[in-house]
Specification:
eight-stranded mixed sheet, 2 domains, 12 helices, Rossmann fold, six-stranded parallel sheet, alpha/beta, single chain
């Protein structure tokens, strides 16, 4: 089948669920046309990073946070639609069997692709993260996209509950998954290191991280690029400590895990959108290598994950969970393996194809 992905993400960005989904389809022999982050101006010929994948970029009239009224939204949508249609014609792109729309504001998608199965994928709480002047319009346009879609997929049970009981909207939780099978961790090395792997930015709870690092006897390894000035300064200050190393951004396959007892995901709950998380995307990748996680307690965390992705409310809770994983690392591997198998790629692929081929009412 031919899948179109409508996104605001570059293909070579650190992988998120849209990349994970596309790569899964490519491995199964499908073709993916991946619309990357729009630019304000310019001409961007398609490129093919790998067999079966074509990346396309178009221009966008207005940033999605600068359309506080429906008129501006529809004007910008009309421009985006024209440019997508022009790119399809100019580059002779094949028409899609399935459109996976990651853009909560593309209310023209059904009109543009009337013969295609349309999946709206809400991977973030776009309404919750909207600027104050955009909140009402974000609610309106996301709901319009949801009503037009054949199915709405989301990574958060909190977002899914927004459309429960709404006529004409079918929602389903579609969580991240482990791309590879479980691999038992090595037993030869002492596991005295706590890993942070991912984005280093304003969503991190820096006071908690500092308290944890300063009070713990464990070593801390941070892998990821600091995305803003405050986070960069916080990371530089932490890196002066003897028990902290910051390695910058690197591919997951290159991260040393042999001395790691667990990972941490400390979120600042005052940041819009953080509370919507049900299962951290990076947790599954780490679990497939036997590494459990400690994450900030949130209202929508997946209950079945709590033995291997343990919630904590403060630095003391993080420290207690870290010590438990350090002590019970090998004893908990059976539970980790079972969780990874339950949340593997085969099950997600099977469900996606079922949703992609279902008959519309």
């Amino acid at each position: 089948m031919i899948f179109y992905f409508l996104t605001r993400t570059d293909w070579d960005e650190p992988p998120r669920i849209r990349h994970q989904l596309a790569k899964m389809l490519l491995r199964q022999g499908h073709e993916v046309i991946f619309f990357e982050r729009p630019r304000k101006s310019g001409s961007f010929p398609p490129h093919q990073p790998q067999l079966g994948l074509t990346c396309v970029r178009v221009t966008e009239a207005l940033h999605h946070q600068l359309r506080p009224v429906a008129l501006l939204q529809r004007l910008s949508g009309w421009c985006a639609r024209q440019r997508i249609e022009a790119a399809i014609e100019k580059y002779s792109l094949p028409r899609p069997d399935v459109v996976v729309n990651f853009n909560y504001d593309y209310e023209f998608a059904k009109e543009l692709f009337p013969e295609s199965r349309l999946i709206l994928f809400l991977n973030d709480d776009f309404v919750g993260m909207a600027r104050s002047w955009m909140r009402h319009e974000a609610e309106r346009v996301e709901a319009a996209c949801a009503r037009d879609a054949d199915v709405v997929l989301t990574v958060s049970s909190g977002i899914a509950s927004r459309y429960e009981g709404v006529a004409g909207v079918e929602t389903e939780l579609f969580l991240p998954w482990a791309e590879s099978s479980y691999e038992a961790p090595a037993k030869a090395v002492a596991r005295n290191t706590v890993l942070y792997f991912g984005y280093i930015n304003s969503r991190n709870d820096w006071p908690l991280i500092r308290e944890l690092v300063e009070s713990s006897s464990m070593n801390f390894r941070f892998v990821g690029e600091a995305g803003d000035r405050v986070s960069a300064e916080s990371m530089r200050a932490l890196s002066t400590r003897s028990n902290v190393e910051h390695l910058g951004a690197m591919a997951f396959e290159k991260v040393s895990l042999d001395d790691v007892c667990c990972s941490i995901a400390p979120y600042d709950m005052s940041v819009e959108g953080a509370a919507a998380i049900t299962l951290n995307n990076r947790s599954l990748r780490l679990l497939s290598r036997g590494i459990p996680s400690v994450i900030t307690e949130m209202p929508h965390l997946l209950p079945s994950a709590c033995r291997v992705v343990r919630p904590a409310t403060d630095a003391a809770g993080f420290q207690e969970a870290i010590e438990d994983f350090h002590r019970e690392f090998f004893e908990i591997q059976g539970e980790i393996e079972a969780f990874v198998e339950e949340n593997g790629e085969a099950a997600r692929y099977r469900r996606l194809i079922e949703l992609s081929t279902a008959r519309s009412d």
